[in-house]
Specification:
The protein is α/β, with parallel strands linked by helices. The chain is built from 9 helices and 18 strands. The protein is globular, with a radius of gyration of 22 Å. The model has no long low-confidence stretch (mean pLDDT about 90).
Length: about 400
Amino acid sequence: MQFETVGLPPAGSTIAVGMSGGVDSTLAALLLQERGCTVVGLTMAKWDGGSSFGLEQGTGGCYGPDELESIERCREFCAEHNIDYHVIDVQDEYRDSVLEYFKAEYRSGRTPNPCIQCNPEIKFGILISRAKKQGIAFDYFCTGHYARLVRPAESIAKLYTELAPAEQKESAVCTEADGEERPILLAEGSDARKDQSYFLYRIPQHVLKTVRFVFSGMTKQQVYELARERGLAAAEQKESQDFVPPECFESLFSDMPAQQGDFILSDGTVLGKHRGIQYYTVGQRRGLGVSAKHPLYVRSIDAVHNRIELCGNDGLLCRALEADNWVWAGDCAPKTPIRAKVKIRLASEPADAVIAPLTQNTWRITFDTVQRAVAPGQSAVVYYNHIILGGGVITRGIYE
């Protein structure tokens, strides 16, 4: 099936640009202005002063007191380039939807992805709606994410039929009434090393219709070159880390004491004590503090009994997984199994698999080749020719 590229807004449009003070969002705003658009800068105020989480020093992440410096950089840039600028307070929503989610997931033995949670809820949700409620008018919302937007030339239902197993191709796998016939789809950005489509897969269709990504066809190197040509100070800044770094976990989880528990093998043998399940994730090797004749890794985390099962490398290999809380492109879900590629974490390559429905919102993904360290709480995202069709949150890995 052919896909059409969704282009940037036309000259004369009013564009709200999500700004962080970094090189990507700063250059995005400037390029749109050069395009002949009226640009409005929007920055999320997430940091609450640290009273609830004990983070008092700069973290280098997207949450922390460094935010105040970022806002000032944005304010100075916008003033210099005659760009209307607004800081939108999302502290309460960010705390409830991202920080509390992050802590609750770790404490339940799962591995959260705060960026996947933040994007649909806050960055492409509350930020946009609150700005409009404050009377800030704009036609499109643009960011400096490295991702593309495309639209299928034909019905998404036809694509699902093409991807269905041979014996089920005659079945109706999707109807136009289920959702958008030709929805806007997220796709991998041109810079594979910086692609952020995986983080964005849960943005709903009604939002994607007015979202655009300025660097869909650029590499990070090209962005830096363009920024330096324009003399942008942001081009010389160090890139921020995602969320908060591991060294800040102690502060983040300080609202509740960690509970020690047992490290065990699959046969129940106790190997030692862990210091609290929130400090571990499936596949982890470093920092376990147990000795063995061969390397050990975290295989599973039992929050109910406060136990962590360890194993050798082969014990991490999964042929299949289950995921729930699914979203599909244009709210149009296939009704039969489809064959596509699935990515189980940002750093993994999409792998060939069959994606089959178990219930209305639970799907089983069976891979052609085994996958290592499938972590509940992470997302399984479905790709076809580098284009996202849907995704869900992993509930369990199915071991051989």
